[in-house]
Write a structure and sequence with these properties.
The chain has about 425 residues and is of the alpha+beta class. Helices cover about 35% and strands about 30% of the residues. Helix 1 crosses helix 10 and helix 2 runs parallel beside helix 3.
């Protein structure tokens, strides 16, 4: 049971579009205080106190959290920000509160270390070689064999990740990956050269309490913009039989990394050799995956994360048995957004259309990969529910047919070709 009078400290509540639901879930059961990088706006009705600090400075994050700890009787500390997993673990340790050891979080953040640990524990993963130069990458690629994947060792959201099919493309691909290796809160600036795992991609949403992990949902993913790995759609079905197949590998990975408590978003590829781990993210998944899990199963992962942070065993009994899916909306080409809309009549009369959200306004520039990423390419998203995965996919297609997104590539060309002032 949650305790409404208990205080939970959230490090970096995140953006309103993709993380508001997390803060709302926690605030329904706990008093919330936050460490953030700016004065609260939309968060204000959901929080009791805050400290503003530089989130790119781990020591400043810990110091700000300790300030809140001095003002409040904090029972638990958590974050759903990938880049702040290590400082949050350090803060929990300083305050004497439950949490995984900072070394376990470092092992998750540094994907090269993740590969080493998984190999030591014989958990299915990908062959991976850490590199610090193009020459090392050339030798690593020759050793592994093409196709390969280049990826920053400690970034997130597939930033800087690219598949390379031959040696001729390696230099350009390495430059792309190296540019993405300098992320905020980076635990490593290295580039990994990895075996390409061929097969569908999924994630397993896990809950760990006192070293025991339960896999509560599987998320099926759709990727786009090859040879990049942009995630463009997700779906969760409470009755998905795939969960039983992938759960043992996911939970073994969590145990191998020494994670003792919290939520894990474990990404895998379904290869012809069985499920293979891509990475272990020790937090609620992004792209509203936690909301999909709640709509499909009734399990509120962010609120469960707060329970775990306070040392409370969560109730993992599903209260719903349906499916939910999200599709991210992109333009067909890079350009200046001129129009985006959904047919209002359709939207207002469709009860399974849970949300339509726009991320860009007309006049904004939309830039697709490789020049852009999820922060510059996405126009919005649509979220639907249904009794099964098949029905939600049909509904996503139907909803997308009622969406219009147009860009003016000529405007973009004129802007790009304009002479310097």
């Amino acid at each position: 049971m949650s305790h409404p009078t208990s205080t939970v400290l959230v490090v970096s509540p995140g953006d309103e579009v993709y993380r508001r639901y997390c803060l709302e879930q926690v605030a329904t059961s706990y008093k919330v205080v936050v460490v953030t990088d700016s004065q609260p706006t939309w968060q204000t009705p959901l929080i009791a106190d805050w400290e503003v600090t530089d989130l790119t400075d781990p020591d400043a994050v810990v110091a700000a959290g300790r300030e809140l700890g001095a003002r409040h009787d904090v029972s638990g500390v958590l974050t759903w920000d990938e880049y702040l997993l290590v400082p949050t673990a350090r803060l929990a340790e300083h305050l004497g509160l439950p949490g995984s050891h900072p070394d376990a979080m470092r092992a998750c953040r540094d994907k090269g270390r993740t590969r080493t640990v998984l190999a030591e524990h014989r958990v299915g993963s990908a062959t991976s070689i850490r590199t610090t130069s193009l020459m090392e990458a050339v030798l690593a690629a020759e050793s592994i064999g093409y196709p390969i994947v280049l990826k920053p060792a400690s970034n997130a959201a597939s930033l800087g990740v690219i598949r390379i099919d031959n040696g001729e493309d390696l230099a350009a691909g390495y430059a792309f990956a190296a540019a993405g290796a300098h992320g905020i809160g980076s635990e490593s600036d290295d580039v990994l050269v990895e075996e390409y795992l061929d097969g569908p991609e999924v994630s397993v949403e896990c809950v760990t309490h006192r070293g025991v992990t339960a896999a509560v949902a599987v998320t099926r993913k759709t990727l786009g913009f090859e040879p990049y790995f942009e995630e463009i759609a997700h779906s969760v079905d409470a009755r998905d039989p795939l969960l039983a197949e992938v759960a043992p590998v996911a939970t073994a990975a969590v145990a191998a990394l020494g994670i003792s408590t919290g939520i894990q978003h474990v990404e895998l590829r379904l290869t012809d050799r069985g499920p293979r781990i891509i990475e272990v993210n020790a937090r609620v998944g992004g792209d509203l995956i936690g909301r999909l899990v709640a709509l499909a199963t009734g399990l509120d992962l962010a609120r469960i994360a707060a329970d775990l942070a306070c040392g409370t065993a969560p109730d993992l009994t599903p209260t719903r048995h349906q499916a939910a899916a999200i599709r991210i909306l992109y333009p067909d080409a890079t350009g200046t957004l001129t129009h985006r809309a959904i047919d209002n009549r359709f939207a207002n009369t469709t009860d399974w259309l849970e949300e339509v959200r726009w991320l860009r306004e007309p006049g904004d520039r939309a830039v697709l990969p490789p020049d852009g990423d999820l922060d510059t390419a996405r126009i919005g998203h649509i979220l639907v529910t249904g009794p099964t995965t098949e029905v939600t996919q049909q509904r996503l297609r139907l909803a997308a047919d009622h969406v219009t997104v147009t860009v003016d590539t000529r405007m973009d060309t004129r802007t790009a070709s304009a002479p310097d002032a």
